[in-house]
Specification:
By secondary structure, the chain is α/β, with parallel strands linked by helices. The protein contains six helices and nine strands; from the N terminus they run βββαβαβββααβαβα. A nine-stranded mixed beta sheet has the order 3-1-2-4-5-6-7-8-9, with helices on one face. It binds iron/sulfur cluster (SF4).
């Protein structure tokens, strides 16, 4: 597998936010979201076998707990990733998989919590979500919309209603995008969409979704990597 980094921090953007978590960040992505803050994962990294990755995770968290597979787009390495996720489950980890939803998710073990992005129009990658992935999502999983404009919000609101997402998954997350070059102040001034505007719209429309803020960007400098 091609790995960018493995580290321990706090989970930042799902219903697991705030919990101690080991992150396995895989290298490579086939999308190019306009606000992507993970461009450093597109190239480079180092080779490791699934067993070597498992050993590194166990060294950071010997007693199990939470581990998140992220990227980049981890499902580009599905052939080795699926066995790795199976091994982590055998070791009683709760496994989260952050994925764009552009790759087929049918081979992901059902015990893995899938946190799946649906890309909105102003991400520059709208329309990449595979609708047939909705068939493999369960009440364990979460769907996330990263929003940078009112148009993105309306897309997410309407997609959530049309596909009755709140009845399919554990949580539907509406998350304001951060400026990709954000650094310094740890507050919402770096959000492309003001969380207060988003909150007002969600309340007015009674959207069955959860406003989600990227917790780690309010704890550490938003430019900091490995947190
Ligand atoms: S899918 Fe994720 S890693 Fe890939 S470009 Fe979009 S935000 Fe960045």
């Amino acid at each position: 597998m091609q790995i960018t980094e493995i580290y321990k921090s706090l989970q930042g953007e799902s219903t697991y936010a705030g919990l101690v978590c080991v992150f396995v960040r895989l290298t490579g992505c086939n999308l190019r979201c306009t606000w992507c803050d993970s461009q450093y994962t597109f190239y480079g990294g180092h080779q490791a076998s699934p067993e070597e990755v498992l050993d590194e995770v166990l060294a950071l968290s010997p007693n199990g707990g939470l581990v998140e597979i992220t990227g980049g787009e981890p499902m580009l390495q599905e052939r080795e990733l699926v066995p790795l996720m199976e091994r982590l489950l055998e070791h009683r980890f709760t496994v989260l998989l952050e994925t764009s939803g552009e790759r087929p998710l049918g081979r992901v073990p059902t015990a893995v919590v899938k946190v799946v992005d649906v890309k909105c129009p102003d991400s520059g990658e709208g329309g990449t979500f595979r609708l047939d992935n909705l068939e493999v999502l369960s009440r364990r999983d979460e769907i996330k919309f990263v929003l940078s404009t009112r148009a993105d919000y309306e897309f997410a609101r309407d997609f959530t209603a049309r596909h009755q997402l709140s009845e399919k998954v554990n949580a539907v997350l509406f998350s304001p995008a951060f400026r990709k070059d954000a650094s310094g102040a740890r507050n919402s001034s770096h959000c492309l969409l003001d969380p207060q505007d988003l909150a007002d719209w969600m309340i007015a429309d009674g959207v069955p979704a959860r406003l989600s803020l990227q917790l780690h960007k309010f704890i550490w400098d938003p430019a900091m990597k490995g947190v």
